[in-house]
Amino acid sequence: AWGQPALDARQVAIGTAALGSYGVKHGAAIWSFERLQGRPRWRLPLPAPSAARNYGVTGSLALLGGRLFAGTLDGELLALQV
Predict the structure, then answer these.
(1) In 10 A of CB 48, how many CB atoms?
(2) Do 46 and 57 touch, CB atoms closer than 8 A?
């Protein structure tokens, strides 16, 4: 994870990146955890590119109005209903 997590009264959300160009074997995802217990609520795996390269979430997430916002290394802004 490169950025700070986003949090509200119910959850803590974090985005991760995968360093495919360095041979690291893990996938990028966005995670939500219960704020009080720390248990995972949900996980959204991000699709890996066809060529080995870095991908996933870059920077900090934001929670606003029931949505979670995340920027990706591909230049996308994801807005998820949470």
Answers:
(1) 14
(2) yes
- Which tokens hold the place of 17? 């990146």
Global pTM? 0.85
pLDDT tens digits, one per residue of 5-28: 999 999 999 999 987 656 656 789
Tell me the sheet residues that pair with 45.
29
Cα separation, 77 vs 54, whole angstroms:
17
Cα separation, 18 vs 46, in Å, equals 10
Reading the block at residue 14, the tokens are 């974090």
Residue 2 in tokens: 């490169």
Q: Is the dihedral of CA 38, 41, 44, 45 positive or negative?
A: positive
In the DSSP assignment, the letter for residue 48 is P
Question: Whole-angstrom Cα distance, residue 59 to residue 50?
Answer: 23
